[in-house]
Amino acid sequence: RIFEGIGLGVNAFFGPDGGVDELASAPDASLSVVFSKWGRFAGDFLEGKYGVPQLVLASPPTGIGDVRAMARAVAEAIGFDEEPSCLAEGFLKKEESYFQFFLSALDDYYDEIAGTPIAVVGDERTLIGVGGFLKEYLGAAVEEAIVTDLADCGESGGPSPLDSIAHSVHRSQDGREIREILKRSSARMILGSSLEADAARRMNVPHLLISYPAGGVMLNKTYSGIRGAIRLAEDYASKALEGLDLAERLALEIISGARAGD
């Protein structure tokens, strides 16, 4: 939707608009846009065999800042002339207006949820998008980021954008190790897969599903783009406020227990 909004045709392999024909016409593309290390093999193949240049991004865009940055990078890579650039800016202004309208609805709650310490668990590109968005727009304090997709895909393991998002970055697929990291953390919310739901219950903190396995049916839910970012803001704010309620109830229980002991 975003690519088409800025005047580009999209050759999607998967989803309702994808298929064998789109796969066969891939060599005719002007550019491959690769999100995360998992697309590098296909991007390298198309570039090496058919000369299709590639643009590698760390994660799908989440929020208007990421969307604008992606649009600029794609436009530069393709070499947009003046007319499509005007079309892109008109679309992006509408998207920004939409984004700001709904995000501003959280202004009344910002002071309550800003600074909430969180832990995020999942594949690296998801953590970059979700963690970066929550830190920038909702003031989340990303205490722990636990990356679970460890295949190197030919990469050397250099610096990650997560290093500037999270206080501590861990890499593990060991469930016990992940639970221990979460247990030692000061997180008041855990964002991860269904595998981290039990750890959240034991820590008496909210859990928000952002990665797989999901433990349920998810047909068309995403936290990427503009509409996905608004959905993420809604879900996160609701869970953060729920966490405040849990903390308040726990404090009252402790106080009541102390008084009963007296």
Top keywords for this entry?
12% strand, 7 strands, two-stranded parallel sheet, alpha/beta
Taking all Cα atoms into account, the compactness measure Rg is 21 Å
Instruction: Work out the strand percent.
Output: 5-15%
Average pLDDT score: 88
Number of helices: 10
Strand order of the largest sheet: 5-4-3-6-7
Contiguous low-pLDDT stretches (5 residues minimum) are none
Characterize the biggest β-sheet.
Answer: 5 strands, parallel
Secondary-structure class: alpha/beta
What's the N-to-C terminus distance? 63 Å
The helix/strand series, from N terminus to C terminus, equals: HHEHEHHHEHEEHEHEH
Helix content: 40-55%
The beta-strand count equals: 7
- Overall form: globular
Q: Could you explain how this protein is built, in words?
A:
The protein has ten helices and seven strands. It is globular and about 55 Å long. The model has no long low-confidence stretch (mean pLDDT about 90). The longest helix is centred in the C-terminal third of the chain and has 37 residues, at about 225-260. The protein has helices spanning about 1-5, 20-25, 40-50, 65-80, 80-105, 105-115, 125-140, 175-185, 195-205, 225-260, and strands spanning about 30-35, 55, 115-120, 140-145, 170, 190, 205-210. By secondary structure, the protein is of the alpha/beta class. It is about 50% helix and about 10% strand. The chain starts with a helix and ends with a helix. It has a five-stranded parallel β-sheet, with helices on both faces. A two-stranded parallel ribbon has the order 1-2.
